[in-house]
Design brief:
By secondary structure, this protein is mainly α. The protein contains five helices and no strands. The chain is 81% helix and 0% strand. The model has no long low-confidence stretch (mean pLDDT 86).
Length: 171
């Protein structure tokens, strides 16, 4: 993991630029592309009934757009956010006893990938949805959100920790 840190360290500014580009341009464009329709991605969990309703509301064309956007967006976006959060955590917790938290963004990325593969499969299989697969996808989604909220909390704690260290050092 430290090797990855050394590689990404010199690319932190461009990486943050790509992250911000996604947040302020690409993600909103994707929502526009799907006509702001409800999708499972921002949900904490979901049931088969909710997925059926989403699939029905999207219609054939919307489901095709959803699948296409997942292929493009949900391969690139998780890589971008995982690398960005990894770098922020690495800088915040470098040389500390909790350095292990730096792997959490990649756990979140893996869970995101698994969630997306399942949802693409189910949208493609509609109307023949499988409740077991949907439940597994929902579990991946919930775990993803728990991990990513934890990452956000650790980033805030790390920044506060580092700022406190700099302030004390300056005294």
């Amino acid at each position: 993991m430290l090797r990855l840190y050394e590689i990404l360290k010199t690319k932190m500014v461009p990486l943050l630029g790509v992250f911000l580009l996604f947040v302020f341009l690409v993600l909103p464009m994707t929502n526009d592309y799907l006509n702001d329709m409800q999708t499972p991605d921002p949900m904490f969990s979901y049931s088969q009934e909710e997925i059926v309703k989403i699939a029905e509301n999207l219609g054939d064309e919307g489901r095709s757009h959803y699948i296409y956007s997942r292929v493009f967006m949900d391969i690139l976006w998780p890589i971008v956010y995982a690398c960005t959060f990894y770098m922020l955590l690495s800088m915040a917790f470098k040389d500390t006893k909790v350095m292990g938290v730096i792997v959490l963004p990649f756990v979140g990325m893996l869970l995101d990938f698994l969630e997306n593969v399942i949802m693409m499969h189910q949208m493609n299989a509609y109307p023949n949805l499988n409740s077991t697969i949907i439940n597994i996808g929902s579990a991946f989604t919930s775990l993803k959100w728990i991990v990513m909220v934890s990452v956000g909390i650790f980033i805030v704690i790390g920044i506060v920790f580092r700022l406190y260290g700099y302030i004390n050092k300056a005294k």
